[in-house]
Structures are given as C-alpha cells and as structure tokens.
Design goal:
The chain is of the alpha+beta class and 310 residues long. The protein is built from six helices and 15 strands.
Length: 310
C-alpha cells in the first residue's frame, strides 16, 4: 500500500488509537481528520520516516511490518480560534452553509495568516463543520481568492463534504462569475481553453502552460463600454486563478488584478473585479436542487456606473 494511503486509512479507521508497532508519533498523533493532501505534504517535507529512514515520496510502497514515525505536528487547532467577524449567510441547513464572502477576506488560515479569515468567522457562527480538510480548512469544499467576492458553499459534515466535492468534480454543481475586464471583447460569447500550472518564473503566479492541468472557461458578454467589457463566466474546471489567468492570456485582464495585469487601476476597488455571482447545487441529503445568488458588490456597481457615463 502507498505510504500516504496507509496513514490516512489508519487514522480514519482507528480514530487515533493505533498500534505503536505500525505507527509511532514522536510527540502527538496526526489529526484523524487530516486529508491525504496534508499527509502528502508532511511526507514531501521530510517529516515521515519508515524504519528510521526519511521518505520523500507519498507513493512509497509499504510491504508490511515497517515502523512508521512522524515528527511533531504543531497543534494548529488551538491557534485558529472562532472570531465574531461579519458574515453574510445566504442559507444554511443541517448539511451546508452558503455565504457571500466579502472581497479582501482570506478563506482559510495559513502560516502567514492566523486570523480574520472566513474559517475563523465560520468557527464562531457555525459549531458543526466537516473535518475532511483538517483543522486549518474545516468545511471548505472549494475556495475563492482573497480579493474575489461572492457565493461559497461550506460543508457542515463529512457526508455533505464528499457529496459536494463529487458535484463539483462531475460538473453538476454550476458556478457563474461576473467580471469587468480591460478592452472590448468582440465576440458575444466564447470558450477559453488553456492548461494552467505554476508559472515557471514567478512561483506565486499561475500561467497557461503545456504541462498544466486542463482548464476551460465559458464566457458571454453582458455589456461593452469604451475600453472595458462586462462579462459572465462559467467554470467547466476549477483551477487556481483560472478566470484571471485565462482572460489575461487572451489580452483582456481583469480590472484591478494585482497579479495578472500591469495596467493602471483607475477605479476604487481593492483587487480584481471578480464576483462569484451564482451557485447551483444539489442538497446532499434531500436531493433538492438549490440556487443561490450573491448580489453584485458596491465596488463593482460603482465601476459599471462610471463606465456607463463615459
């Protein structure tokens, strides 16, 4: 069995009650809710040993009987505390909570962001969240960039989390965005295709690259202005920064985008003019089709008003 699968399977089945001959944690056990991606990162960071030897590949094959040890895992659960932050809740039931995320709010904590995130707010407003993505990302099925506003769904339990993830993967959950881009797009509608991966020069950016993951964005023009276009986008895939990268690639970067355009931002908006407008999904337990919409934020409304006067 692969090392990462073994660890995840062991934790989920044993609920942290493990046989020390198979698994040894030098300080404390891994959280039983830790996702495979987190376990894979521990392995790639050199924190996992098999029979005393550091293993860097999560695909390392176990033959049986090895002693596996994991270096101390910092207890992040106590560091990410509930915070009474403003949270625009559009809907919630026993399985899901749907929010309208504000522009400027980071979705989940990281080493450089300890508080003020959507997760901190969710921990205060909602006491039951799925644990599949661990203590740093409880309930987070999909994410929005810090400076992208709009509708997001969060899972309250593991069943709902798995179900929602499958809906996104199988494209039965439909996400539509509104964006204001530079330039006047001539086509009324179109499809932008281009594999997206980590930029070869700036590792903090994404780019269209031959060895990236397939990415497809549908769009239709809602309104044209002098030197700008208002568009609706529908994601067929969900790659990091997908809409921002794709429109930059075709020469129509998003207004205000701090990463993917050097064009001057003449409007009062912090970050890219991108808004997650609608989300359609199936309620995990009842099977009911649910539709949610987050109204266009004031900063984008003001831009459209300014452009309409030109």
């Amino acid at each position: 069995m692969r090392l990462d699968i073994y660890l995840q399977d062991l934790l989920s089945k044993s609920n942290q009650t493990v046989d020390a001959t198979d698994f040894v944690a030098e300080k404390n056990f891994l959280p039983s809710s830790m996702s495979r991606s987190h376990i894979q990162k521990l392995i790639s960071d050199g924190l996992v040993k098999v029979d005393g030897k550091i293993i860097l590949k999560s695909s390392y094959k176990l033959s049986g009987g090895e002693k596996i040890s994991v270096a101390e895992i910092k207890n992040v659960e106590s560091e990410y505390l509930p915070e009474n932050l403003p949270l625009d809740i559009l809907y919630q039931d026993s399985d899901i909570i749907v929010v309208n995320k504000a522009r400027g709010m980071t979705v989940h904590p990281a080493e450089t962001v300890r508080s003020g995130t959507l997760v901190n707010a969710l921990l205060y407003h909602c006491k039951d969240l799925s644990g599949i993505n661990g203590v740093m990302r409880p309930g987070i099925v999909h994410r929005l960039d810090k400076d992208t506003s709009g509708v997001m769904v969060v899972a309250k339990n593991d069943f709902a989390h798995v179900n929602l993830a499958e809906q996104i993967k199988n494209k039965t959950a439909v996400r539509k965005y509104l964006a204001i881009v530079h330039g006047e797009i001539s086509d009324n509608a179109g499809i932008i295709s281009g594999a997206i991966g980590r930029d070869k020069v700036d590792r903090k950016k994404m780019s269209v690259t031959a060895d990236g993951k397939p990415a497809v964005t549908e769009f239709r023009v809602l309104e044209r202005f002098k030197n700008f276009t208002y568009v609706e986008c529908k994601l067929q895939t969900g790659r990091t920064h997908q809409i921002r990268v794709h429109f930059s690639e075709i020469g129509h970067p998003l207004v205000g985008d701090p990463k993917y355009t050097s064009r001057k931002n003449i409007f009062e908006i912090q970050g890219q003019a991108l808004h997650s407008h609608t989300l359609t999904l199936t309620q995990p337990t009842t099977g009911e089709i649910l539709n949610f919409a987050a109204p266009l934020p004031e900063d984008m409304k003001k831009i459209l008003q300014q452009l309409g006067k030109v």
